[in-house]
């Protein structure tokens, strides 16, 4: 019996070595160690018939062989598993890659960056406004005291504690004048809010770029030169301009800056079709502006007899619409990828 056990062990070990797949290995395990008909199991079933002396010898021997075979089977199983795994993890470099959607900057952000760059080249600094500010900075310090009828032009939202989601980024004028030493120029690009009934040209949320320059002996020619240079650089076009009087409480005189229409080149029509962008007039009323009101300079603690300046507030949304021929301002906030992916 001892020989029989040795034979079974040797046979099993030599066959295990040759096995190349998991199924054959499992079959072999059943053949030798299966609970009912395994070769080793059958031998163990004979143990009760043996003499006590034989039992003492054969019992431990069978156990030893059983343990050795178990280890051999487990080891082989592990080896086969590793081979299978490395087969599964084969990496096919010829497969097409996964597609990633790459985001782009919103057209308003793209244009804001362009505008900032142009003014930075002209020596202007960039300030960021507070999106919610107080009455003093939004109105009073801009020569719009409480009860002033001109406040009606900026119908807006108020918070419960009397703060204002800013109606214009002019809210930084007073701070800029207090913090900086003339001569200085700043632009303030930012998001503004007004109580508007929305349509193709009006939104309750929009973007404005305020500009302010303060120095000595500043006059209208500085204002005109700055704005015209900017617009020609932005539209990459020679433009004609004209100014006409207007009223804004924080400037004196107050003006509208008009340029020849960028869509029809000032002709009022394109291919004999009336230009809808300029309403057939050939002119675009683009930028409300003017020379800074002496009272506004005084309220910031500067001497209006010594210092003068100019300011403007232009709609960033409008600049984007004109540059890309966008017909409806509401596209900007619609979150429609078909629109946004075109930029
Ligand atoms: Zn036109």
From TrEMBL:
Its main location: cytoplasm. GO terms for biological process: phenylalanyl-tRNA aminoacylation. It catalyses: tRNA(Phe) + L-phenylalanine + ATP = L-phenylalanyl-tRNA(Phe) + AMP + diphosphate + H(+). SUPFAM superfamilies: Class II aaRS and biotin synthetases, tRNA-binding arm. Gene3D superfamilies: Bira Bifunctional Protein, Domain 2 (3.30.930.10). Residues 177-342 form the Aminoacyl-transfer RNA synthetases class-II family profile domain. PANTHER family: PHENYLALANINE--TRNA LIGASE, MITOCHONDRIAL, PHENYLALANYL-TRNA SYNTHETASE. Belongs to the class-II aminoacyl-tRNA synthetase family. Phe-tRNA synthetase alpha subunit type 1 subfamily. Tetramer of two alpha and two beta subunits. This is Phenylalanine--tRNA ligase alpha subunit. It comes from candidate division CPR3 bacterium GW2011_GWF2_35_18.
């Amino acid at each position: 019996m001892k020989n029989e056990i040795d034979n079974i062990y040797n046979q099993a070990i030599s066959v295990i070595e040759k096995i190349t797949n998991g199924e054959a290995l499992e079959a072999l395990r059943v053949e030798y160690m299966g609970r009912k008909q395994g070769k080793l199991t059958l031998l163990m079933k004979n143990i009760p018939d043996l003499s006590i002396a034989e039992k003492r010898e054969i019992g431990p021997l069978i156990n030893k062989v059983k343990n050795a075979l178990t280890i051999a089977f487990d080891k082989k199983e592990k080896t086969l598993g590793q081979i299978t795994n490395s087969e599964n993890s084969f990496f096919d470099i010829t497969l097409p890659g996964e597609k990633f959607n790459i985001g782009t900057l919103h057209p308003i952000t793209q244009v804001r960056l362009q505008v900032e760059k142009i003014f930075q080249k002209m020596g202007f600094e960039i300030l960021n406004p507070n999106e919610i500010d107080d009455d003093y900075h939004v109105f009073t310090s801009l020569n719009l005291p409480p009860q002033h009828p001109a406040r009606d032009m900026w119908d807006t939202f108020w918070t419960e504690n009397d703060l204002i989601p800013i109606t214009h980024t002019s809210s930084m004028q007073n701070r800029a004048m207090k913090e900086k030493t003339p001569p200085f120029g700043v632009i303030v690009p930012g998001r503004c809010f007004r109580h508007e009934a929305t349509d193709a040209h009006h939104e309750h949320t929009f973007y404005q770029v305020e500009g302010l320059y303060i120095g000595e002996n500043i006059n209208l020619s500085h204002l005109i030169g700055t704005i015209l240079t900017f617009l020609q650089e932005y539209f990459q076009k020679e433009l004609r301009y004209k100014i006409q009087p207007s009223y804004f409480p924080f400037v004196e005189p107050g003006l509208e800056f008009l340029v020849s229409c960028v869509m029809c080149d000032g002709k009022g029509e394109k291919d004999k079709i009336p230009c809808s962008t300029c309403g057939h007039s050939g002119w675009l009323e683009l930028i409300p502006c003017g020379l800074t009101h002496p009272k506004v300079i005084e309220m910031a603690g500067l001497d209006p007899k010594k210092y003068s300046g100019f300011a403007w507030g232009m709609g960033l949304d409008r600049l984007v619409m004109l540059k890309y021929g966008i017909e409806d301002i509401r596209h900007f906030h619609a979150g429609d990828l078909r629109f946004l992916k075109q930029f």
